[in-house]
Each structure stands twice: as C-alpha cells, then as structure tokens.
Write a structure and sequence with these properties.
The protein has 105 residues and is mostly beta strands. It has strands at residues 2-9, 12-21, 30-34, 47-48, 54-61, 64-72, 76-78, 85-88, 94-100. The protein has no helices and nine strands. Strands 3, 6, 7, 8 and 9 form a five-stranded antiparallel β-sheet that branches. A four-stranded antiparallel β-sheet has the order 1-2-5-4, with no helix packed on it. A hairpin with a 5-residue loop joins strand 4 and strand 5. The two termini are 22 Å apart.
C-alpha cells in the first residue's frame, strides 16, 4: 500500500510517501530500492510495527514518477500492486512506478 501526505519544506513541494506491506510476508528484512536512492539495496530498510506490518516513509519531490521495488532478504524482488504501472529496467528486471502528482499544498 502507498499513502502520500503533501507538504512544503524549505520552499520545496514534497510528499511523504509511506510504503506498507502486510504482516504475513515472511522475511528477515525488506528494503525499498529505487531510482530515488540510487538503487541502493540496503539504505532504506522497512521497519516492523507492533502488529508485524512492514513500513517505511520517504520524502519525495512532487510532479515526478519514481521507479522502485521491494527487496526481501536481499534476493527476492516484490512489486507494488497499487503502483501506477510496471516498467522494464535492464531485461528481464521490472520495477513498479509511483507517480507523485503535483497538487496545491
């Protein structure tokens, strides 16, 4: 699930984007990997809440599309069903696409 909260900071229009995965995903760790973090497989780990759900929030500039995927235990890619689309990376890899719409803040 993807939730967006729009705000302004230091003259920039941003969205705090929260990515959530259900508690029934069996993994020791899950990381958010995308073009917004240089495709770094370790820099943005999800955290588990007290109910076991996985979440992470990142601040992204609005008016952009961002490619990303979830990486489970460093090996298994997962894609976001709520993302606007899937796009090809280097074949045969895919990535989800989240569009952060421009709105009045």
């Amino acid at each position: 699930m993807i939730k967006k909260i729009y705000f302004k900071a230091n003259g920039r229009e941003l969205a705090r984007v929260t990515f959530s995965l259900p508690s029934n995903i069996w993994a020791d760790r899950i990381n958010l990997v995308g073009d917004f973090n240089g495709w770094d497989c370790t820099s943005q780990p999800f955290r588990r809440d007290r109910d076991g759900a996985w979440t992470i929030s990142v601040d992204l500039e609005i008016g952009q599309s961002y490619k990303f995927y979830y990486l489970s235990d460093g090996t298994d890619r997962m894609f976001e069903a709520q993302a606007g689309e899937l796009c090809p990376l280097l074949a045969p890899a895919l990535a989800s696409v989240a569009v952060i719409e421009a709105i009045q803040v």
